[in-house]
């Protein structure tokens, strides 16, 4: 017997929706920037309607992905990752040779 994934209930929290909206806005901005660059036209000649439509659709899919993550992620975030990733510690810069003695 297979078990069905269950929602964690995070979907009903303010933190979840703040996270989901932040992800959607970032996704929309990235898609809009990509469309503008790929269009290769000037700022005034760009097909803004097409670019905004693509960015809006990407934002909708981002929110839908966040909602489905509530079923797969027990951490209560909009992320599909099951473990929080921690940034690596910064390593000290390698010693640079001095140019003064030349």
Account of the protein in words:
The protein has helices at 14-39, 48-72. The chain is mostly helical and 102 residues long. It has a domain at 10-72. The chain is flat. The mean pLDDT is 78.
Which key terms come to mind for this protein?
50% helix, 102 residues, mainly alpha
Distance between the termini: 75 Å
The succession of helices and strands, N to C, reads: HH
For the residues shown, what is the average pLDDT? 78
Task: Give a count of the beta strands, DSSP E runs of length 2 or more.
Answer: 0
Strand fraction: under 5%
Q: What is the alpha-carbon Rg in Å?
A: 21 Å
Largest sheet features: none
Low-confidence stretches: none
The number of helical elements comes to: 2
What coarse outline follows from CA principal-axis ratios? flat
Structural class: mainly alpha
Helical residues, percent: 40-55%
Task: Write a concise synopsis of the structure shown.
This protein has a domain of 63 residues. Helix content is 50%, strand content 0%.
Produce the secondary structure layout.
Blueprint lengths: L13 H26 L8 H25 L30
